[in-house]
Design brief:
By secondary structure, this protein is an alpha+beta fold. It folds into two domains: 102 residues, 2-Layer Sandwich (Zincin-like); 39 residues, no CATH class. 39% of the residues lie in helices and 15% in strands. It has five helices and six strands. The strands form two sheets. Strands 1-3-2 form a three-stranded mixed sheet, covered by helices on one side. A three-stranded antiparallel sheet has the order 5-4-6. The longest helix is centred in the first third of the chain and has 22 residues. The mean pLDDT is 91.
Length: 170
């Protein structure tokens, strides 16, 4: 059975996020705004900072966050806030996602700077991906739906790495 975060737990996550943003504002003597937070992330990713088209957002995976609540509150929240603060403070250009600026921010947050969590997610649903069979002169290949759609739209063609033949749908 998959358990989602309840309202109280979601509010704790929002409060913890705000706490780290306030801490960064004090460290840098600035006033970065709070950031929208959603709990709609799917798959096996626990958290994600998203930036683009003038929008900044932190997304969390509610079932995974709920299953490992205390650890995620301690590790995932500062991890994602650090991405946000590094983006705001340094800009996105020439900054590696888990580079020295991010690691420095995690150190200032007194948080673990490891990039991945090691949780047992075997009972969490996995996203399934479709693949389409394509053929060349030497074997059958599987293309993902995005690559298949590019072929259908005439935007791309793919060749076999072994024989060099252009792949065609089976």
């Amino acid at each position: 059975m998959i358990i989602e975060l309840d309202q109280k737990e979601q509010q704790q996550v929002v409060d913890e996020t705000t706490k780290y943003i306030d801490l960064a504002n004090n460290l840098f003597e600035t006033n970065y705004p709070t950031i929208p937070i959603t709990f709609d992330l799917k798959g096996h990713t626990i958290g994600m900072y998203k930036q683009g088209r003038g929008e900044r957002l932190i997304r969390y995976n509610s079932p995974i966050f709920a299953k490992f609540f205390d650890a995620n509150l301690r590790d995932t929240v500062p991890h994602e806030v650090a991405h946000y603060i590094v983006d705001m403070h340094y800009g996105a250009r020439n900054i590696r996602p888990h580079g020295k600026e991010w690691r420095s921010m995690m150190e200032r947050f007194n948080a673990d700077a490891s990039r991945t969590a090691d949780y047992d997610l075997s009972d969490m649903p996995k996203r399934s991906y479709s693949s389409i069979a394509y053929r060349c002169d030497c074997k059958v290949h599987q293309l993902g739906i995005r690559r298949h759609n590019k072929v259908i739209q005439g935007k791309m063609s793919y060749s076999c790495r072994h024989c060099g033949d252009v792949l065609t749908a089976v």
